[in-house]
Write a structure and sequence with these properties.
The protein is globular. Helix 7 runs antiparallel to helix 8. It is built from 9 helices and no strands. The chain has a domain of 106 residues: Up-down Bundle (AhpD-like), CATH 1.20.1290. It is mainly α and 180 residues long. InterPro entries: AhpD-like, CMD-like. It comes from Actinomadura chokoriensis. This is Carboxymuconolactone decarboxylase family protein.
Length: 180
């Protein structure tokens, strides 16, 4: 469930019933379980196939470390008020080494927690991209002290991608699965 959508609001599309899944959705669900994000977006099979490849690359095969990736995703989920994205990435954040205190602090102003320099620069980039749609020269220069060309491109695309996912989840009112 996402932005300003009370938990009792009805999704705009029901998840695709299992008897209508194609081979791509079957393979995804075999790996992740039948998550509503996938079973909803698979209602547009061509778009789903293209998106799942891109999203999987960012999530599973990217050049960014798991901690940086999950900091950026969770901060974006918070900034976009997307509970679905937040709830699903909390566990991935813990798997990437984030503590519960750090995860909770992602909902605060950046100065509300004593972030290390590496974490702070990733979070500042997420905040700046959210606020202005770009990165200042100062932020870019700071990021470039730590990340190479591919990681810089990937970080910006990762944050942008999870903004898009949050917009989609919010607008379609995709609900969390039972027990999530």
């Amino acid at each position: 469930m996402c932005a300003d959508t009370p938990r009792n609001r009805v999704p705009r599309f029901d998840p695709l019933p299992e008897d209508e899944w194609d081979e791509v959705l079957q393979a995804v669900a075999a790996t992740t379980g039948p998550l509503n994000v996938f079973t909803t977006l698979a209602r547009h099979p061509e778009l789903f196939r293209a998106w799942i490849g891109f999203g999987s690359m960012l999530l599973l095969k990217g050049t960014l470390g798991a901690r940086d990736r999950e900091l950026a995703i969770l901060r974006t989920a918070h900034l976009r008020s997307c509970d679905y994205e937040w709830d699903h990435h909390r566990g991935l954040g813990r798997d990437a080494g984030l503590t519960e205190a750090e995860i909770a602090a992602l909902r605060l102003d950046l100065d509300g927690h004593d972030w290390g320099d590496d974490d702070h620069m990733v979070l500042a980039a997420a905040d700046e991209l959210h606020a202005s749609g770009t990165l200042s020269d100062a932020t870019w220069t700071e990021l470039a002290t730590r990340f190479g060309e591919r990681e810089l491109i990937e970080l910006v695309m990762l944050i942008g991608h999870y903004h898009m996912v949050a917009f989609t989840l919010n607008a379609l009112r995709v609900q969390n699965e039972e027990g999530h």
